[in-house]
């Protein structure tokens, strides 16, 4: 009998890769979507699409018949104006999804948190570290902390919930794109003349998807697993992109006070005056200026998390952006991957 699983966030970056992996592995997938028009590609793949949202009272009924749940969906925003939506979607939405899974008889849930919920530590953080929630930069990170707490509390009450915390995924199907994908895309468009002295932990998005399946099979309820691979400075990432594409990497770093000042003017003065969202949120700059390095050895050891080279992830991201028309003029670079 083929295992049927329920997925939230299937139209997002991680979710899109997870759904495709699940189908490849023979699972039957039922995906929750808010806007059916955005899920046409999933339906074409054979996914059973159900319409609703994370706060719906109908969720339990929609999950009936599914033995496992992957709760991947979350609202991402760095804008102060999105405080209420972040709380409603990420925290209360997670509470409702977990309650629905329990009511529907779902046997195991894999909850997609984020290293944003863990915080930072020098030289790198692991699953045992936890920054106080008021020290997490920005409302998004704080909402992910409180959402993960909902998952922990559900596990403490006896619900089978495994928590995964991806770092910065890179790869195909980054259609929005994510903040990490935006770095790659702005580089490809030659819109990055300078860089910040910062860094992230990067991982191929397909490894993140594999980590979700491994968490379903081997994860321990109530435990968190960092799904990451390699710590890289932003300069090292851009240099690797330069090697892949032939586009020159920026050579000059800027002090973080400069983009922070630009962001403050944009968000506090220009955005209200012009009636548009800020192009450079203050919290985005504050987060970017803080290196986020992580130790994923627990997931490698306990889950068998794959560790695809970051260069390969970047090649796949570049190819996907180019083939899907994100760059223009066929990309305007050579492929050195």
What's the average pLDDT? Answer: 90
CATH topology category name of the domain at 4-174 and 203-231 and 293-310: Rossmann fold
Assess the beta-strand content as a share of residues: 15-25%
What series of H and E elements makes up the topology? EHEHEHEHEHEEHEEHEEHEHHHH
Helix content bin:
40-55%
In the sheet with the most strands, the strands line up as: 3-2-1-4-5-6-10
What's the end-to-end separation, in Å?
41 Å
Largest sheet: 7 strands, parallel
Molecular shape: globular
CATH class of the domain at 4-174 and 203-231 and 293-310: Alpha Beta
* Quaternary structure annotation: single chain
What structural class do you assign from the helix and strand content? Answer: alpha/beta
CATH architectural arrangement of the domain at 4-174 and 203-231 and 293-310: 3-Layer(aba) Sandwich
